[in-house]
Design brief:
Shape: globular
Structural class: alpha/beta
Helix content: 25-40%
Largest sheet: 7 strands, mixed
Strand order of the largest sheet: 4-12-11-10-9-5-8
Number of strands: 16
Distance between the termini: 32 Å
Strand content: 15-25%
Number of helices: 13
């Protein structure tokens, strides 16, 4: 594939941005080579600066559930822009999107729009602390919640010790407000609550952990979280920046039928435009300023262009059978890959839920925690990623990232893409020494 234009653009970008990018994973350091500079997207296809075309399974990291440049979304964006791009004042579009969401979501009664998933999580934590008067947050190893200071932490040296910073610039005092526990471990959770129950404001979890592989949780563990948080007056936060409106219109809360106290959402509610939100009961949300004393604000919150895009996208998601159809397509796609790998005894599995999938070089039938992911397996993903680019298939440039199927991925396109992926797998495994990475 041609790369001269992307290479030239990346060389210039390194003069302007740290590492040449505005978000770390874009730098392609996990997979090698030059980042692709993209110029166009249409349906399930993207085109880079060199004119290479790819079937896109990144979908802007998930929010493009209808595909790129969807006509209905685009038309509403253009219409909104013709009236102005930003006002810093209320518009009717905020009401329309909020009503659309709340009328079809049993798990929240009020919502507040923000400008990103990170901002939604940051605001949810402040709400939890303000409403409870407590300061400690429990998070789980392998769950990512944006670049919020108090959640950029990793586990300490014991089952019930406070976290330590995982990023320069996050102070020790901030890190010590967070307990980091292993996923799917009821014993560790019990110990932490026994030691610190009176100080814990909230437990936050990705109910579908999808930022460090796809670490599907047993429903019983999520139900246990709900049970112990109720018992100890601790708020339960579902971070649904990825799973919200992706595994179903009601997200993972609806998928598992579990009522959290606060839910955060991301850019899928803005049709790919910069937006996020958090929601909860009317009583809990009454703590937010100007009604309550938990301050949170944003000049671009409820931006009319983002609201218009979100209304168009979410109305399309409410079509009868929309999510069932996406899941069936995804299952057919992943089954073809799993059957091919199994028939050749490759150390390779594709895990999925709804229209989210993840490629893992493993023999495990399920991965539920970060400890179960072999970091050495990432070198195989690196080789696979390079093979897929040559065959016109684009995945996020990290083996820890998940992929997404959109409405624009037709069964025929998915079948052809799976054929190409199977060929790429054959190439990767044929280049390995005999017996390496095979079951």
């Amino acid at each position: 594939m041609k790369r001269s234009q992307s290479e030239g653009l990346f060389k210039k970008a390194q003069n302007y941005f740290p590492g040449g990018v505005n978000s770390p994973v874009r730098a392609f350091r996990s997979v090698g080579g030059t980042p692709l500079f993209l110029e166009k997207g249409d349906g399930c296809h993207i085109v880079d600066a060199d004119g290479n075309q790819f079937v896109d399974f990144c979908c802007s990291w998930g929010p493009l559930i209808l595909g790129h440049n969807h006509p209905g979304v685009r038309e509403e964006i253009v219409k909104a822009v013709s009236n102005g791009t930003s006002f810093g004042a209320p518009t009717r579009k905020e009401n329309e999107l909020a009503e659309l969401i709340l009328q079809h979501n049993r798990y929240i009664e009020m919502i507040r729009f923000v400008s990103s998933g990170t901002e939604a999580v940051m605001s949810a934590l402040r709400l939890a602390r303000g409403a409870t008067g407590k300061s400690v947050i429990i998070k789980f190893e392998g769950c990512y919640h944006g670049h919020v200071d108090s959640l950029l932490v990793k586990a300490g040296s014991g089952l019930s010790t406070f976290g330590i910073s995982s990023s320069a610039g996050v102070t020790e005092s901030v890190a010590k407000d967070t307990l980091v526990l292993p996923l799917n471990d009821k014993r560790a959770l019990d110990i932490a609550i026994s030691d610190f129950a009176h100080d814990i404001a909230a437990i936050i979890i990705e109910p579908v952990p999808a930022n460090n592989g796809l670490m599907l949780q047993d429903k019983s563990f999520l139900e246990y979280l709900r049970k112990v948080t109720h018992e100890h007056n601790i708020l339960l936060i579902f971070d649904e920046v990825i799973s919200g409106f992706r595994v179903g219109f009601e997200g993972a809360a609806g998928y598992y039928n579990i009522q959290p106290d606060i839910i955060t959402y991301g850019k899928i509610i803005g049709g790919g435009m910069p937006v996020g939100a958090y929601g909860a009961s009317r009583k809990l949300m009454s703590n937010i300023a100007p009604e309550g004393n938990v301050y949170q604000a944003g000049t671009l919150s409820g931006n009319p262009v983002a609201m218009s895009a979100g209304i168009a996208q979410l109305r399309a998601c409410l079509k009868p059978g929309f999510y069932d159809d996406l899941e069936q397509r995804t299952k057919a796609f992943t089954s073809q890959l799993n059957n091919h790998a199994a028939s050749r005894k490759y150390l390779f599995k594709v895990f999925s839920i709804g229209s989210i999938f993840w490629f893992a070089f493993t023999e495990k039938e399920k991965i539920s925690s970060a400890e179960e992911i072999d970091s050495e397996s990432m070198k195989y993903f690196r080789a696979l990623h390079a093979e897929l680019l040559e065959r016109g298939i684009y995945l996020g440039p990290s083996g820890y990232e998940v992929g997404f199927v959109s409405e624009a991925h037709t069964p025929e396109i998915l079948k052809n893409a799976a054929d190409q992926i199977c060929t790429a797998l054959d190439q990767v495994f044929s280049s390995l020494p005999e017996g390496v990475s095979k079951v």
